[in-house]
Design brief:
With 105 residues, the chain is mostly helical. The protein has two helices and two strands, in the order ααββ. The chain is elongated and about 110 Å long.
């Protein structure tokens, strides 16, 4: 049985060294880019969280204002604003089994 050895000449060693160096530089630069992006996203998330808290607070205040104004609306205020009572009420009847809708009078 014969054994053969692979001889790597000097040119192949240099090209392998530079290829591995390029891969290492690429991996390190990618790592730093990802770390930087993670830091930016974290700061952005915290900023958005503060804005969401402020908006939720504002919405809560508006909801309480709406509820208090809703309590003040009554029949006399509606008449004063020009609303009138409905006399002829019209409904859509579901019992009709046709393919079209019709208005029941």
């Amino acid at each position: 049985m014969q054994t053969t050895t692979l001889k790597i000449n000097n040119i192949n060693r240099k090209s392998i060294f530079w290829a591995l160096t390029a891969v290492l530089v690429l991996l390190l630069s990618s790592y730093f880019c990802f770390i930087t992006q993670t830091i930016i996203n974290t700061a952005s998330y915290q900023s958005m969280e503060r804005k969401i808290t402020a908006l939720n607070s504002e919405i809560s205040g508006l909801e309480s204002q709406y509820i208090s104004l809703k309590r003040d609306v009554d029949y006399d205020l509606a008449k004063e604003l020009g609303y009138v009572e409905v006399t002829a009420i019209k409904f859509v009847d579901k019992s009709i089994t046709s393919q079209t809708l019709s208005l029941v009078k």
